[in-house]
Amino acid sequence: MEYLQDVLEKLKTKNNGEPEFLQAAYEVLTTLKPVIEKHPEFKQSALLERITEPERLISFRVSWIDDNGQVQVNRGYRVQFNGAIGPYKGGLRFHPSVNQSIMKFLAFEQCFKNALTGLPIGGGKGGSDFDPKGKSDNEIMRFCQSFMNELYRHIGQDVDVPAGDIGVGAREIGYLFGQYRKIRNAYEAGVLTGKGLEYGGSLARKEATGYGLIYFMREMLKANADTINGKTVIISGSGNVAIYACEKAQQYGAKVVAMSDSNGSIYDPEGIKLDVIKQIKEVERGRIKEYANRVKGAVYTEDKDTRSIWNIKADIALPCATQNEINLEDAKKLAANGVKAVGEGANMPTDLEAIEYFLKNGILLAPAKAANAGGVATSALEMSQNSMRYSWTFEEVDKKLDNIMSNIFAACDKAAKEYGMEKNYVAGANIAAFDKISKAMIAQGII
After folding, report:
1. Does residue 369 carry a catalytic annotation?
2. Going from the N-terminus, what domains does the chain have, and what CATH number goes with each?
3. 113, 125, 195, 281: the active-site residue
4. What is the DSSP letter of 53?
5. Are 313 and 337 in contact (CB under 8 A)?
6. pLDDT digit string (tens) for 385-421?
7. Residue 304 pLDDT > 80, yes or no?
């Protein structure tokens, strides 16, 4: 595997100081070893070098005025990583941690995730180091308008279609879309997804990533003669993904006992009261510690890196907060506490050592690029509805989502078995997605 090693070494040299991107690239490329061995022609066409280099990386200044009249300056990004199978598609993240490495890792992962959906969308990602926490609605509006004043040059419904991510919800998408519409003097509904239902959004989009995670978990457990019903579940995070993963897991008969946010975690041995979580997070935009003040018997643990949640005994763990929230030590805790399956609702929440530990110890792992693809899949369904100037019912969208997630699991399972790695759904997802992207790139020539 001289070619693969050479590519990995060049990646380290060219992307020095970008640990998240290197981690994502290493995780994918190393699982592709048996595929690369079958195709020596990949070296001649530098396929791995091309698939790990963004087609376009845009960085720009975002100047805006806060409520005190002070000018603030943030940095914005859009990474258009691979458009071989469709327009670039991927969310925008507003969070202080955002940097070039994180943007590239997310965009790279998005290419594979989008390929797995079976829908014609390429991979991209964007965002800013702007922190929406503690900002007024007017400050967020002014920031979004300034951000779009640059971003509009690089997007379009047949070019690049952003959506939401951490820090970018319905409010932010609304402000972004309004500014885009004003600049373009046209109603191009398909340029952004995650829109409100009043102006071109799709039913079930809010629920899609969390629901999709559980649909994938259902299929993975079914393939291993198991079920979600009756299982105890812990979920990190309390945003969109976590809330709706909790909702669907409860509908399937699971008992969710813990959730978290960036300040700490709550444990409710009687089972999470999701209506309380929704009130705190979706209505009041508050902190999860409020749950313990409102629900008798619930315990709140202050924990800035929220790793204490992995100490709780459970059958299933669903990391739905952010990247690298499970390390090797956490993986060992989860295994010791009886966890049999892990479903990645966040992007790359498990580090490489923890992934290896799970796989070696027989813990089923649903990888993010497959298990959390429901959000982008439903975004693509929103694009379809916008193109038709028509909308489907919640039930119609949910059924399509269920079918897509079932097909994604089937593709991961088939690819893993084909290359002698049964039950390794991490490798299966990477191989199945790579097969589609690589064929499209080869067909379109050296560009």
Report:
1. no
2. 1-52 (no CATH), 54-188 (3.40.50.10860), 206-371 (3.40.50.720)
3. 125
4. S
5. yes
6. 999 999 999 999 999 999 999 999 999 999 999 999 9
7. no
